[in-house]
Amino acid sequence: VIATNMAAAGRQEDVVEYFLYPVRGKNSAGRGEECPGLEEQTDKFLAHLSPLLVDYIWQKEPFNLRATTAHGDLPPHLHGKTHFGDNIEDEWFIVHLLLQITASFPDYIARVQDNDGEFLLIEAAEHLPRWLTPDTSHNRVFLFHGQVHIIPQPRSPAEIACMPAGTPSVQQALDIVSRYPGLTVAGRPIQEAIVNRIGSYPEKMCENVHRTHCYLPAGVVAVLKHSPGLVAPAVQAFYGRDPLDMKACRTMKHFPTDTCVKAQVRFTRCQYGQLLQQRFTPDRRSGWKVPPPSHPDHLAWDLGIKLACGFEILCCRSSGSSAQGESPHISDVRWQRYLSFLTEKGYFKSELEGSMRYKELLESAHRHYQDTMTVSCDRSVDHGQEVLNILRTNTWDLEQLQAAGEHLDPPDDDSWLVITPDDLDAMLEEQFGQAHRKSGDLGEASGMLGSMVDSMKSFVDKVSSHEGAEFPGMDEDQPVEFDVDSFSQAMERILGLTNGRIDEDNEDDGLMESESESSDESEDEGEYELGAEGSEDAAMTGYMEQMDQELARTNVGKSFEKEPTQEKPAPPRDLPMDGTDSKDEDDDDDDVTPVNVDLNLVKNLLESYSSQQGLAGPASNILHTMGVKPPQDAEELD
User: Exposure winner among 37, 136, 466, 626, fewest CB in 10 A?
Assistant: First the structure.
């Protein structure tokens, strides 16, 4: 467990790490050597996923795989690591890719983690068994046959032979998942929670893309036309700019501002939001001419200036050495093998070899494969040098770009940036289920209030521990607790033992007559003890009544809701009355009026819930955990 926590703490933040293990017996690799077929399998996986990967815009790093030799308890496997930055959708897209691989290639078992550990379990936390905690989940969560698998703990001695009670090794866990998939597959609620979070691809890829218009220098338009994925490092460069980077934006040496044309740019929603929310006023020396905010093209100019500055920052950050900008060497054998897998997969869509569309698809595939190999080799990518190489090797016609800018498709609607309260409620209902709607039926409201009181009483009666409070509705699969003192007292009452002595009722069981006197004395002592206890209870009751009478005259006592009192009949008029005594009696009647505990409990809970104004707080957290959903407007129940 300590090693697991240290490994999770050592992982880089915003980085997802994933593994693909071949099922034992399905591959002839030796234990201590790298599997010779893993590189070929890597190319096959990338080609299989090419329809999803080639045009995908990653936030920072792409999905990548590389063959890894056996070490420790890890067999030969494929390993990948992706820095997804601020776009959490990249992480869940990788989970979708791994599910696709394990579904199409059943001889491989996948595993995915990030700096939070088993983040799949975090998403399905409401549906997990009680025993599954961060301390017990190590080497128990895998992806196999397109589903989530969780190795359970043995529930009987017969299962110990196939299910480990402690933490299994990676190889043991892989053998269990491959041999007993029916026992390890997670339940339907867990599967649905994860699938719902992932969403449906490739439809979701289109939803996460935002196309808009930008006024850009002609060089930036040429770069994006050659490599649309470079929009990501340009946005990141502008988003993380510093004062030294802003000096480069004064002159715009690589992208002159007098060559701006209107073009359509494809962002992810995360990148569009990052660029849009940045406040930026260009330096006057840069030559940018921004129209006023009321101008219809103000947004296009604002986004274009920010994106152009991002590309300028990339170029200025580059060392300028063409050697560092060169692509890593790609083996001709691996490239040809990957190309053959693409052809088998139908990537080129029956396009004739040598046609313009075929060349575009081939160039996109080559660029994607090249970026993947660069990341898998742990080499840092100099995007600035890549941009400079494109500017050096490509030419463009400014008039042609200006003409193309006059016939652009309309930009996408960015109303998704604005979330209304109704939209937020809909999102919460979709995530956590249907919210409790207010109803005009008073019977339903009173039933809700009654369940609130019952749940709170049940919650108070529960026993808490260092692991937290036990709420009503939780599984009662806790170990049996044995209280020695309570057991001894119960046995004494059953056997007639009182204070270590035997009662007088057991005289007939062969007891000596001499003990009768002591028995009588014990009875007398017992009666005395009972009398003492009774007097103590009476004294305590008297103290409590006096305290109630004193508190009733204060503001605290008057703030409580009390039981309704019945009006007493008026005394006859002919009887003499003492005004002082009658006043005292009335005060006593008011003072001893019992407090309605249930009504005060509900009132205080609803007032606390209403004061939260829809935000999270102690009242809503306790009530929701106990399964009670208060009305949206608690004041209606007053």
Answer: 466
